[in-house]
């Protein structure tokens, strides 16, 4: 068996899904949820099963016959993204979620080749605001939107 890109992706997906499935037991249930048909564990269990089945299909029936080559990777871009993600991690608290995440997405899109400043802003900013609203109002997860000096 030779390693193709599809098989390597399938193996990595299988490892992730198995680890995810093992961690589902750590999701706490309230006492009244123990006998219910749909709980906080139901969707993760379904996702883990579907992920394991699909990853096994990728491993058994790969469609891509290209051999895996580490030389084909764009290493400078990958390292630049690691630096960008690290900077984002350090700036999200002092600059606030909206500003730090918008800047992160704009820089990431620019690194991937998008050169239109209008597109960068029109895609990144509404996406960040929508995600922030979903987190705060839909899921009740408090995320500080603004820098500390602009908050109440």
Keywords:
mainly alpha
CA-CA gap between termini:
61 Å
Biggest pleated sheet: none
General form: flat
Strand content: under 5%
**What value does the average pLDDT take?**
86
Order of helices and strands: HHHHH
Poorly predicted ranges: none
Query: Structural class, judged by helices and strands?
Result: mainly alpha
Number of strands: 0
The percent of residues in helical segments reads 55-70%
Evaluate the radius of gyration: 20 Å
Summed up, the helix count is 5
Please tell me about this protein's structure:
The chain is an all-alpha fold and 152 residues long. Helices cover 63% and strands 0% of the residues. It contains five helices and no strands. The chain has helices spanning 5-23, 42-60, 75-95, 97-111, 117-138. The longest helix has 22 residues, at 117-138. The protein starts with a helix and ends in a 14-residue tail after the last helix. The model has no long low-confidence stretch (mean pLDDT 86).
């Amino acid at each position: 068996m030779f390693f193709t890109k599809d098989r390597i992706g399938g193996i990595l997906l299988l490892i992730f899904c198995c680890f995810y499935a093992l961690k589902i037991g750590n999701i706490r249930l309230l006492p009244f949820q123990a006998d219910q048909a749909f709980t906080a564990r139901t969707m993760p269990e379904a996702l883990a099963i579907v992920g394991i089945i699909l990853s096994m299909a990728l491993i058994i029936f790969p469609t891509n016959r290209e051999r895996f080559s580490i030389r084909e990777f764009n290493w400078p871009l990958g390292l630049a993204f690691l630096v960008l993600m690290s900077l984002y991690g350090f700036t999200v608290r002092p600059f606030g979620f909206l500003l730090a995440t918008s800047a992160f997405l704009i820089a990431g899109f620019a690194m991937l080749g998008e050169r239109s400043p209008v597109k960068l802003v029109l895609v990144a900013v509404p996406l960040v605001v929508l995600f922030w609203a979903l987190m705060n109002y839909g899921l009740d997860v408090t995320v500080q939107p603004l820098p500390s000096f602009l908050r109440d």
